[in-house]
Amino acid sequence: MTDKSIRSQRSRADRLSPYGESFYRQDIQGIRAISALMIMVYHIWINGVSGGVDVFFVISGFLVSTTLLRQMTKEGKILPLRFWSGLIVRIFPAAYLIILVTAILTLVFVPAPLWKFATNEFLASALHVENLELMRSGASYLDREAPPSQYQQFWALSIQIQFYILLPIFIAALGAIIKRLRLVWLAVAVVIAVAVTSLIFSAYYTGVNPAAAYFHPAARAWEFLFGVALAFIYPYLPTLSSREARMTVSVLSFAALTALLGGGLVFGSSLDFPGVVALV
Questions:
Q1: Which of 33, 125, 200, 244 is the most buried (most CB within 10 A)?
Q2: For the CA atoms of the chain, what is the radius of gyration?
Q3: What is the pTM of this model?
């Protein structure tokens, strides 16, 4: 191996090296807790859209992408089977326990004529395509006049699983761009381009069919992808050292939290979601 090829390999490795560092963000854990509380409060008592699920999607895109980038840096490549097996161990036991308990309670409390619908959604939730089943049946998430669905809450997990299936392949392709072209920002540009395309589709489809758009994976993909883009940018963000910079971040954080908490109160359930409204 020549000196030139060795230097080339080191240069490519240096491009990925920032992604190998582990980190823990307490603020992310805090916003996840706030989002969960918002979902319960807004849906149960206010009958509005909280935006909590959208925050979860962005955070999921960010955290899962950092995991894959760290794996690519340390192992030299993405290992999809290791990634998927980790998700199965972490997510599936609790999810399938809830699905099973819900099925048992359905047999006890739900009238027999409605078991057919419950069976369809039981299978859809178990196969992580509940969002597609709700689209097929024409369900509206905020329609309280419609018969209640025992499994409707699994639509969000279904979209997440669908995203997790494709993400390792996407990250591996972006990693190839960084390794071969040594251009981190080109990879970021690709992510943002795909995200903007999804956002445009979300805005269009929400206007055409808002009930279906709520559950459509392509109308939600941009939220995950914004998190993916942040995962690529995060290691290169400057460290804030000055008092003025930290104060600016505190003000922006407070403004963002206020917008998140107040969004559901302002929007209510009258506006179609997700579309551009979810940008807040």
A1: 125
A2: 21
A3: 0.84
